[in-house]
Design a protein that fits this description.
This protein is of the alpha/beta class. Helices cover about 40% and strands about 15% of the residues. It has 2 domains: about 130 residues, Aspartate Aminotransferase, domain 1, CATH 3.90.1150; about 220 residues, Type I PLP-dependent aspartate aminotransferase-like (Major domain) (Aspartate Aminotransferase, domain 2). The protein is globular and about 55 Å long.
Length: about 350
């Protein structure tokens, strides 16, 4: 006789983790949408300053970080939730909003963690296919909302397809969502989006009490390893609810210190976005030369279907890995025969294109 596990365990799929953690340093890590830029020296120094007090618990209220975010975005601190990465807030949102008999609506392919919400809560997940441009079909999503819907998620820009929806379309969508439904706008990559000012969506918080904007320090700020995210919430009760159901001290002292310091360097954010746009243009141009039509990226990565005459997805991914380039296979992200590739340094981007050309025999 052995211990018995809950049905939740069997419902929950394993997270499609990228490889590379045991590989040598001479590898182009282009599989996890990480920043190729290391933390700023000022951020590293801020972390070092708090490590001497690591024998004490971190501030469970995240007061200084919430105050810094409040100043940055002009959103009251009581309307800001902090998490150990934005995924922490996402999963907490599922816990406080969903249950058996409820529904959650999201596009697919989209962020691979969204299916965990239905698995963890017993809610019914409704996946709405993207359109032929790899974008959210907002009208189709609206059509799926019922009296049982508690949560609708829009990932903008979308992971894994890199595409974005203009803010006016997002605003029109939120306007039509019933007020009993929480709209979670996942903006993990918003700083890279050049369709609109990344701060434009903040105005929607003043108009829609059911809206949550979820963001992270993992991407443009380059703090993946410290795990710190946040949500800007129209209703402060959302903050209270997600804090209530999580373990205490969910954001460590080093992460809080790093995030506070990172916010002080918006000039560096602008420089990183500019370099990302250059990488986007250069990689997309090189892919076109190989006969590949990538999706219209507004993120720090590209997404494309492999040519029909190419080796299979697994063979292409393995061939790239053999040449020292790690990318993410589409199958684990919701679309077989596609690749998601994070933009790296100029040298890494060139290495990826050369390796792909070799693997495809172009």
């Amino acid at each position: 006789m052995s211990i018995e596990f809950s049905d939740r365990v069997t419902r929950t799929p394993p997270y499609p983790m990228a490889p590379a953690y045991d590989l040598p340093e001479d590898v182009a890590l282009m599989a996890s949408n990480e920043s190729p830029d290391p933390p700023l020296p000022a951020v590293v120094a801020a972390v070092a300053r708090v490590l001497g007090a690591a024998n004490r618990y971190p501030d469970p209220t995240n007061a200084k970080l919430r105050a810094a975010l409040s100043t940055r975005f002009d959103v009251p601190a009581e309307q800001i939730a902090i998490g150990s990465g934005s995924c922490d807030i996402l999963m907490a949102a599922g816990d406080v909003l969903l249950e058996s008999g409820a529904e959650v609506v999201y596009a697919w392919p989209s962020f691979s963690v969204y299916p965990y919400l239905e698995a963890a809560t017993g809610a019914r997940g409704i996946r709405v296919p993207l359109n032929d441009r790899h974008e959210h079909d907002l009208d189709a999503m609206l059509a799926q909302i019922t009296v049982a819907t508690r949560l609708v998620i829009v990932c903008n820009p979308n992971n894994p397809t890199s595409t974005a929806i203009p803010l006016d379309a997002i605003a029109a969508f939120v306007q039509q969502v019933p007020r009993h439904v929480c709209v979670l706008l996942d903006e993990a990559y918003c700083e890279f989006n050049t369709l609109d000012d990344p701060d434009s969506s903040l105005e929607l918080l003043k108009q829609h009490p059911n809206l949550v904007l979820m963001r992270t320090f993992s991407k443009v700020y380059g703090l993946c390893g410290l795990r710190v995210g946040y949500a800007l919430c129209a209703d402060p009760r959302f903050v209270t609810a997600v804090n209530q159901i999580r373990q205490p001290f969910f954001c460590n002292s080093a992460a809080q210190a790093a995030a506070i310091e990172a916010l002080r360097h918006q000039d560096v954010v602008a420089e990183r976005v500019e370099r990302n746009v250059v990488a986007r243009v250069e990689v997309e141009s090189a892919l076109h030369d190989l006969g590949i039509e990538p999706a219209q990226s507004q993120a720090n990565f590209c997404w494309f279907d492999l040519p029909e005459d190419s080796p299979g997805e697994a063979d292409v991914v393995a061939g790239l890995a053999d040449r020292g380039v790690l990318v993410r296979a589409g199958t684990g992200l919701g679309r077989e025969g596609a690749l998601r590739v994070t933009y790296g340094t100029p040298q890494q981007n060139d290495r990826f294109i050369a390796a792909l050309r070799d693997v495809l025999g172009r």
